[in-house]
Every structure is written in structure tokens, then in C-alpha cells.
Amino acid sequence: MGEEPTARDGTALGHLQVTLEAALHLLRELADDDLLRRMIATFHDMPEGDRPVLVDVLEREVKSRLLSQATEDSIGQSTRPNPNARLYIRSFESGFDRRALEHDDMRIANVRTMQASAVIRGLPGMYAIWKDAMRAAMDEVDDATRVIFAEMLGHILRCIDEKQASEPDAPALGPHKHSRS
Predict the structure, then answer these.
(1) SS (H, E, C) 30-72
(2) Digitized pLDDT (tens) for each residue of the chain, 181 residues in all
(3) Rounded-to-integer distance, Cα 127 and Cα 66, Å
(4) Which of 7, 13, 46, 110 could staple 18 via S-S, CB 3.0–4.6 A?
(5) pLDDT tens digits along 121-162
């Protein structure tokens, strides 16, 4: 027998050998990469109609991340993966009242904000940084935004007062002056 045929010799056997080598390479790559295997399994699990949109999103985000990595030293800004990102948006086309869901989402966000505030307030250095950052943030928003924020803050203080009034044994927080409704 002569030499092993290769794709360069143009024979069908040569093309088959190259194809089988490529398939073997892909199989080895899959066997060694759990994340790639999960990505492919997830791709196969997703509805077929979603695939083009989600691949476009992933491609766009990866390009953006690579650009960020290339410029982060000169710009001083970087990106990172968001472990809480969602690729699907909720859409309500039924008689379902979405306000209940929005209420729950906002309630959870408010609880997290209050809990984070307690942590920040408990760390003197962090609290000082927060206060400085809040002062600086005021320079980055317009008067209308500050007025809306003050109105919402007034509502927060009223909610605190109401809660304190409903719990007779709760420690006194002191009077809050509410200048806005």
C-alpha cells in the first residue's frame, strides 16, 4: 500500500479523513470543556425561534466586552458579566394584572436597598464614602430629578413613621419633617 490519502490529493477518501479528523477534534474539545457542553445543551434546549435572537445578543455582548477589555486601561472603565442578567423580557398580553408582579419586584428591591443601607451605615468608612458619593451624585442630576427624589424620600419617611406608630414597642426614631406630599 502507498501513502495515506489526504484532502490535498482530492480523493473522496482524503476528504473523508479530513472530515473525520475535524469531528474527532470537536469531540475531544467537547469532552474536555464542561461549559461548552452546557452551552451547546442549552442552545439545543431553547425554542428554535429564539435561537437567532439570543445568538445575536451573545455576539453583540461579547464584542462589547472585548472592546471594553481593549480600552479599559486608557478609559478607566471596564465591563464584567452580570450574573443577574435576563435574556428574556416579560410580556403581558393577557388579562393578568402585571401591577402585582411589579409590586413584588419593587418590594423586593426596596427591602434589598434598606438592608444594604443598614450594612453601609454600620461601616463608618463605607458610610463616609456613601455620603460623599451622594453629594457628588446631586451634581449629576437636574433640579426636577432632585425634586422627585425628595418627594419619594418624604414618602419613605412617612412610611417609616406609619410603621413606627403601628408598633407601640418600637424604638422612637425621632420626628421627621415632611415638606412635600
Answers:
(1) HHHCHHHHHHHHHHHHCCHHHHHHHHHHHHHHHHHHHHHHHHH
(2) 444 545 556 788 888 999 999 999 888 887 888 898 899 899 999 999 999 999 999 999 999 999 888 888 877 888 888 888 888 887 766 665 666 668 888 888 889 889 989 889 998 899 999 999 999 999 988 999 999 999 999 999 999 988 888 887 777 666 555 444 3
(3) 34
(4) 7
(5) 998 899 999 999 999 999 988 999 999 999 999 999 999 988
| Contact predicate 98/89, CB 8 Å | no
User: Which residues are CB-contacts of 30 (< 8 A; sequence separation ≥ 6)?
Assistant: 36, 37, 40
Q: How far apart are the first and last CA of the chain?
A: 95
* Residue with grid cell 471594553, as numbered in its chain: 68
Instruction: Say which residues have a Cβ less than 8 Å from residue 149's Cβ, sequence separation at least 6.
Output: 141
Residue type, 19: T
C-alpha cell at position 171 = 424604638
Q: Which residues contact 150 (CB under 8 A, 6 or more apart)?
A: 179, 180
Q: How many helices (H) and strands (E) does the chain have?
A: 6, 0
Angle at 139 between CA 176 and CA 76, to 5 degrees: 125
Stated pTM of the model:
0.41
Maximum Cα–Cα distance across the chain: 99
